[in-house]
Structure prediction request, 432 residues.
Amino acid sequence: MNILLIGSGGREHALAWKLAQSPRCTTLWASPGNPGIAEVIAARGKGGCVALPLTDHAAVATFCAEHEVALVVVGPEAPLVDGLGDSLRAAGIAVFGPSKAAAQLEGSKGFTKDMCTRAGIPTAGYVRAKSAAEAHAALAGFSLPVVIKADGLAAGKGVVIAQTAEEAAATIDDMFGGAFGGAGAEVVIEEFLEGEEVSLFAITDGSAIVPFGSAQDHKRVGEGDTGPNTGGMGAYSPAPVLTAELEARAMAEIIAPTVKAMAETGMPYSGVLFAGLMLTAEGPKLIEYNCRFGDPECQVLMMRLESDLVALLDACARGELASAAAPSMSAENAMTVVVAARGYPATPASGGLIENLSAAEAHGAKVFHAGTAATAEGALVAKGGRVLNVTATGANLQQARDRAYAALAEIHFDDGFWRSDIGWRELARQPT
Ligand code: AMP
Ligand code: GLY
Prediction:
């Protein structure tokens, strides 16, 4: 079948790499794609990267009709929250990714919290506030630290953990003052949860559900998990801290009731559910949902996936997950290290020359392109904050780590930096 993949980051390069390996994939298109994705497609000799106007849903549908695209795989959240999935489905095209209504699980934190309350899903206590006055009044009911979140999509920046009452009050004023634009028109105030964070992925078509592995990432830019938040500086899978028992609990107490609640309210959720969990003393609690694969978590999941990605995503998109083969993940460990451009996350330096990726891959690693561009002369340069994801597998996490960093050492990119301690928490727990 012909497939159109939406997105341009490392997550989409990893998806493209796996989609293209499937015997079911005839032609792969990507929009907008990136130079790494273009390479994957060029190796197959069919398809390519196309700059479709993604907010013009009719134009995307027309492209699909003209190129006999039978499946659209949406990588990032923005087109889903914008309803691209609904428009394409209305045009008779199968889409991997939720409807606009169901994507509210990521698009509105208040929506998700209310759904948790209705379905009895364990999560932090909260209050939704539609005005600064309401929010200030609600603060009295929380102890410190307190978590304050802009309701809408804020590119991962709309969450503040306030340590003092002054900081909490100032955050509320900032959010209602427009610091996050429309995303802060409403805020959610939350109880602070103590524990370790872990990500759990599940694929669902609205009724059947299959677990799709666990991961942990490092959100802070600096060594030792310090400094400003980023989209993620590295990740590994599986996350041993989510034991089989805890995963079963999270599936039963969080994921399954969510899928049921969404179906019952007339917004069946179809696609990948990415649950950010806090492993508290009382058990796993939901921190947040994302309606897409994590970036860079997807890269480590794709490295471990042994079964056919096209068969899985297509069955999900068609509501036939119950009769599809369950995904199989290798028992190996995978790690990805993000190479970012100097200045990230504030103002990343653009245009730095990148060389020697094939030498890095000769070490058995995969280098996914997250923010690169090809110049007219055919050179590869940085474009964006997170530039490369150097990804490797191993029999244990230490081996995956050593392979990823050995590959990274081959790369020439003067403008790049990375964290040297990805996986530190887990590696410290493992026997040496
Ligand atoms: P979110 O965008 O909801 O994932 O929040 C970003 C980060 O803030 C999470 O990854 C957590 O590290 C932290 N966080 C969010 N909510 C809470 C909470 N209720 N308690 C403790 N930490 C939280
Ligand atoms: N790496 C976190 C995310 O994709 O949201």
Notes: The pocket of glycine (ligand 2) is lined by residues 217, 231-232, 290, 294-295, 297 (CB under 6 Å). The radius of gyration is 21 Å. The chain has a mean pLDDT of 96.
